[in-house]
Amino acid sequence: MIRRTVTACVLSGLVLASAARRASADPALPALLKSVGIDQRLNESIPLDVTFHDEDGREVKLGDYFGSKPVVLVMAYFRCPMLCTQVLNGLVEGLRETELTIGKDFRVLTVSFDPSDSPKMAAAKKANYIRAYADPQAAADWHFLTGTQPSIDRLAESIGFRYAYDAESDQYAHAAGIVLLTPAGRISRYFYDVHYSGRDLRLGLVEASQNRIGTAIDQVLLFCFHYDPTAGRYGAAVMNFVRAGGVLTVICLGVMFAALMRGERRRRSLLSAAAGAHANGEVAG
After folding, report:
1. Are the CB atoms for 62 and 155 separated by under 8 Å?
2. pLDDT of 45-74, one tens digit each?
3. Separation of alpha carbons 224 and 226, rounded Å
């Protein structure tokens, strides 16, 4: 058992490290890890007709969770000894920083890619993370799903999630990341790693919702920060700052020019009035 856990931890660590190095192109990595990764499918749709079972054992379609809110999708199997737990822990920490609320603003789906996981295991995992999120109301909109291999394959392929089973350790090698989906089930954003900043999650959810959630401040931040699909995060949009600076400069110059023109007109008006008064004085004399 110890050997299996250690092997799984090593596999998880290698996969996490390889995400930034494009593991499939690294000949030094084990063959198992070369087939692992996440291929972005931005703006493509997931199969909403595919069926799974929820944590209560009921058969559901993915489409049951779409239509009105953006969705955070997490691929994680429930007996994973290390990486999946870190991904889910990081997600909870990030979501609690967003000031958006599961249920009110978005939904979360955690889907196991291990066909041997059961609804009972899903229910136990859900209970843990609802406690960690510290909002019992979130239970209605954060679901943990299990399914058959064909269903798992259809969903995993649609989002570009590539994983591999290691028979020796009886564990899965996989990359770390989450996917943000629009209310229509289209892929909007990918975030990598096991830590997700509240700012990135909030901006990603605002964009995925087509600006149906969030505030005017979020719209300003979306102007200032640009999503980098390679890094899987938001970075400062330098050109937007440059453009905003240019516009601000033009406005300031316009205001200064208008002020100078008003001052010049006033000066001329005063000189004209003074000249008129002087002329009238001479005539009177």
Report:
1. yes
2. 999 999 999 999 999 999 999 999 999 999
3. 7
